[in-house]
Design goal:
Number of strands: 19
Number of domains: 3
CATH topology of the largest domain: Rossmann fold
CATH superfamily of the largest domain: Thiamin diphosphate (ThDP)-binding fold, Pyr/PP domains
Largest sheet: 7 strands, mixed
Number of helices: 25
Strand order of the largest sheet: 9-8-10-11-13-12-17
Strand content: 5-15%
Distance between the termini: 58 Å
Length: 638
């Protein structure tokens, strides 16, 4: 019986001395462990299956205790974590207090950056190399691994340009699996497909480079002639031309699952100087047939209920209840059906935003721009200027990447672009790189911007319809959680108007977002204790409903603002600012929200409880506020 290798790995140094057969066995053990984890909880899957051999090859050739390694985006970090001493704790991945699903410098010296957004690896590895060279640490090798989906990000080409200009000794590994989360799009995708077609140019170039290095000093003419032959071959065969012209020596494409071949070429490249791009083609989901056949579903699949040897015959749990993402995608489809001028744009997140049906039904008005959020927003500005009604459907945490375009190309122009911000608030196991904590402040600070959030499912379609009728930019945020509905007589959406859901005289919860349902439950619980607390569905952070909210602050013993966003500059801050402008006493105002720190990964419900943003937390805050009355400065609480 074969002795398992993975449990005996304490560090990458344990890879040295393993035979080719041992490494092959280890690759399968890593895949088996990935399958086992997916039988416990949802996690990133197909992307990790695709980089097993690359991870083993990198750690076999380089010593990343000293050398530098950055994994772009970071969701394909699992094999790296298993190799770098985290096997014993791996079962805790994506749980509260457990191993993070992305690189985390607090876990290991092998994780240099906490990376969760695409495209920054090439810039950061260049910065690391620059510092190492200046600090007389030139022996440190610098490697960035970036996928073809992330490669189209504008910052990548800014970095490539700068690296070539400095002639840095940097190795960029382009892991090309023909995918982002969904299939990649655009001209770069077509170019990389051309590069996959043949390996003839690479072999010819290697031979010519070897020949040139052996030419004796016979004069510049002979050397120049051979250089022209090489350039002529490049022009005919085209492979790698783009990168060569940008100042990178291009190698590849090579098979990302040929472990001995990867080790050989990495050893060859390790000692070479100047900017190098190694093009590795891999298969997302490799080793698990169902994952490779449907890498979109198996990017982050549901928990497995059944799996056979080596991940075959996988069955997954059926999907749970519908969430706010489903409600918004349905609302977008309805809006596009009603108005032929409505378009929708996403940034490589068609599946995440549940837009597959929209793409199928309205292909001419669906635009997936790839992982290029800045471009998406400026593109939407152009559409709006020409008379269309674009909806930019992007996760809150990713829309931050287009901050300048929101300012310059949309808000400054006062164009009617609708921003639908998915995953606003706490995203749970994805952790601090993905929590959508900051969009309330960064959207409400722009002149002309209308900032909204539905209180429940009933608000979603009317709120989108309202946004599409405005002649100004609008923002609608909603969380990744199951839909809820508050029973009440529904009030229509009006600009800057909130909705009183529960009456009360002893205090008030003023809620911006879908925590309205928890506030209503808290109100009912407090009423049983003899405390009558009103509940207001704020709906708007900008313009704020001053006519409803400010009188509550003036006459109520306490007012508690509630938001699933950062307290700094958020909805509660907007209330305090409005009160300050009208010289209203705010000692009875309590702000509940996300404090001024990055929130770790855990289930959303666990995080809400820890932050006092659940029913019991609201009740505690109300009891305390009522007992204290107006004796203390409650604006600092929370």
């Amino acid at each position: 019986m074969t002795t398992p290798i993975l449990p005996r790995l304490n560090s990458p140094q344990d890879l040295h001395g393993l035979s080719e057969a041992d490494l092959k066995q280890l690759a399968q053990e890593i895949r088996d462990e990935l399958v086992r984890i997916l039988s416990i909880r949802p996690a990133h899957f197909a992307s990790n299956l695709g980089v097993v051999e690359l991870s083993l090859a990198l750690h076999s050739v380089f010593d990343f205790r000293s050398d530098r390694l950055i994994w772009d985006t970071g969701h394909q970090i699992y094999p790296h974590k298993l190799i770098t001493g985290r096997y014993q704790d791996f079962a805790s991945i994506r749980t509260k207090g457990g191993v993070m699903g992305y690189p985390n410098p607090h876990e290991s010296e092998y994780d240099l950056f906490m990376t969760g957004h695409a495209g920054s690896s090439v810039s950061t590895i260049s910065g690391l190399k620059s510092a190492d060279d200046l600090l007389d640490q030139k022996h440190r090798h610098a490697v960035a691994v970036i996928g073809d989906g992330a490669f189209v990000s504008g910052i990548v080409f800014e970095a490539l340009n700068n690296i070539a200009g400095m002639n840095q000794d940097v190795l960029v590994i382009l892991n090309d699996n023909k995918m982002s989360i969904c299939p990649r799009t655009g001209g770069m995708a077509q170019y990389l497909d051309q590069c996959r077609m043949t390996s003839l140019y690479q072999g010819s170039k290697r031979s010519l480079n070897y020949l040139l290095s052996k030419i004796p000093v016979l004069g510049d003419m002979a050397h120049s002639a051979l250089e022209q032959i090489r350039d002529g071959m490049k022009a005919v065969l085209k492979e790698g031309m783009l990168f060569e012209e940008m100042g990178f020596r291009y190698f590849g494409p090579v098979d990302g699952h040929d472990l001995p071949g990867l080790i050989r070429i990495l050893r060859d490249l390790k000692g070479q100087k100047g900017p190098i791009l190694l093009h590795v083609f891999s298969e997302k989901g490799h080793g698990v047939p169902q994952a490779s056949e449907d890498p979109v579903l198996f990017h982050t699949p549901p928990v497995f209920t059944e799996f056979g040897p080596e991940g075959t015959n996988i069955k997954t749990k059926k999907g749970g209840s519908k969430g706010y993402t489903d409600a918004m995608s349905a609302a977008i489809a309805n809006a596009m059906e009603a108005d032929p001028k409505v378009t929708v744009l996403t940034a490589a997140m068609c599946q995440g935003n549940k837009l597959e049906k929209v793409r199928e039904k309205f292909p001419d008005r669906f635009f997936d721009v790839g992982i290029c959020e800045s471009h998406a927003v400026a593109f939407a500005g152009g559409q709006a200027k020409a008379g269309l009604r674009p909806i930019v459907d992007i996760y809150s945490t990713f829309l931050q990447r287009s901050f300048d375009q929101i300012f310059q190309e949309v808000a400054l122009q006062d164009l009617p672009v609708v921003f639908t911000l998915d995953r606003a608030g706490l995203t749970g196991p994805d952790g601090p790189t993905h929590h959508g904590c900051f969009d309330i402040p960064y959207m409400r600070l722009f002149p002309n911007m209308i900032v909204m959030a539905p209180g429940d499912e009933c608000d979603v379609q009317p709120m989108l319809d309202f946004a599409l009728q405005q002649e100004h930019p609008t923002s609608i945020r909603y969380p990744k959680t199951s839909l809820e509905t508050v029973k009440r007589e529904f009030a229509g959406i009006e600009l800057g108007k909130s909705e009183v859901v529960e009456d009360g005289d002893d205090g008030a919860f003023i809620v911006f977002g879908t925590l309205v349902t928890a506030a209503v439950q808290a109100s009912h619980k407090l009423r049983e204790e003899g405390l009558n607390v009103a509940v207001v569905n704020a709906r708007f952070a900008k313009p704020l409903d001053r006519e409803t909210i400010l009188p509550l602050v003036e006459r109520m013993p306490f007012v508690i603002t509630i938001e699933e966003g950062t307290l700094e500059g958020g909805f509660g801050s907007a209330v305090l600012e409005a009160c300050n402008a009208d010289r209203i006493d705010t000692r009875g105002v309590v702000r509940l929200g996300i404090p001024d720190r990055f929130i770790e990964h855990a289930e959303r419900s666990e995080l809400l409880t820890d932050l006092g943003l659940d029913v019991e937390g609201f009740c505690r805050a109300a009891r305390r506020a009522f007992a204290k009355g107006r004796e203390e400065d409650w604006s600092a609480v929370g």
